């Protein structure tokens, strides 16, 4: 149940990101966010890339942690 | 789930949240703070925040491993063998990451990926010894024999790890910081702004490695039910 909800959330988040990316493609030259990511030789783009990768790994670890917890609970109730 | 139980559960995981927050800070600050540009290093000095913590994680894991091996040899409790082997596996993983990041760094600052630098060579030997430990475990099927032989080998490996990675590179000439002729990680040799990121990086990455280690141990506990009753 939780897994289904989680994958739904992930799909929605990905959809939003792609929609946002599409929207931003139309005005690439303006906006404070774009200005920020283009400053300092676009270093902030790579900072963002690393934050995304790190958060992905963390989400994976949290999910694994919860799955193991669930198995431990099952073992405790009916060994 | 009642809210007070949920709060208790969250309170038990506070150090995982701390690790995530510290590492997000390290990633963002590590790339954006001003650092001194020295010699051929250029901006690559920022690797300090990611390369060095790998070794801290490796030392932490190998220390957990050797302590559990020692306890195993005094009590013959197979649980200790599981703790020791899990820690050695996670430690070797972080050692390989440290070696790979160091080799990439060396390619663009020392002029070679695998150089004849004593620190790099000795570290490669140390990691290979721990890989031999993991292979040795696979080669013995009897569970008690495996635990005893690998515990003795683990103590031997740790006794070699310290001189190979910590003492010898400090006594001879090396391009790596912290050798006989180069400044190392001492209180006067590192810029203050870098320390503001470096110490959180040590804590954050170490907590992350401990988290991965606990996951491995919990998985092994479920898998080896005859040992963990």
Automatic annotation (TrEMBL), chain A:
Superkingdom classification of source: Bacteria
Protein name in the entry: CcmD family protein
Organism: Chitinophaga solisilvae
């Amino acid at each position: 149940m939780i897994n289904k909800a989680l994958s739904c959330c992930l799909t929605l988040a990905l959809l939003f990101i792609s929609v946002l990316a599409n929207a931003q493609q139309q005005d690439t030259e303006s906006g404070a966010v774009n200005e920020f990511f283009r400053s300092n030789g676009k270093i902030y783009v790579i900072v963002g890339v690393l934050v995304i990768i790190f958060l992905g790994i963390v989400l994976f670890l949290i999910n694994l942690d919860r799955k193991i917890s669930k198995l431990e609970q099952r073992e405790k109730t009916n060994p | 789930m009642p809210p007070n139980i949920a709060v208790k559960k969250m309170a038990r995981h506070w150090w995982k949240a701390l690790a995530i927050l510290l590492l997000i800070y390290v990633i963002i600050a590590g790339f954006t703070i001003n650092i001194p540009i020295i010699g051929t290093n250029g901006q690559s000095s920022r690797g300090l925040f990611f390369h060095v913590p790998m070794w801290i994680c490796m030392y932490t894991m190998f220390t957990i491993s050797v302590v559990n091996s020692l306890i195993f040899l005094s009590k013959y409790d197979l649980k200790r063998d599981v703790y020791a082997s899990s820690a050695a596996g996670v430690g070797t993983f972080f050692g390989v990451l440290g070696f790979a990041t160091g080799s990439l760094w060396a390619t663009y600052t020392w002029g070679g990926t695998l150089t004849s630098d004593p620190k790099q060579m000795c570290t490669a030997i140390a990691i290979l010894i721990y890989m031999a430990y993991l292979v040795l475990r696979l080669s013995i099927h009897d569970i008690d024999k495996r635990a005893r032989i690998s515990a003795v080998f683990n103590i031997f490996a740790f006794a070699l790890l310290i001189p190979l990675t910590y003492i010898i590179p400090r006594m001879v000439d090396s391009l790596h910081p912290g050798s006989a002729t180069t400044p190392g990680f001492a209180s006067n040799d590192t810029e203050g702004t870098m320390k503001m990121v470096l110490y959180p990086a040590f804590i954050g990455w170490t907590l992350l490695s401990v988290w991965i280690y606990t996951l491995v141990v919990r998985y092994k506990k479920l898998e080896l039910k005859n040992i963990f009753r």
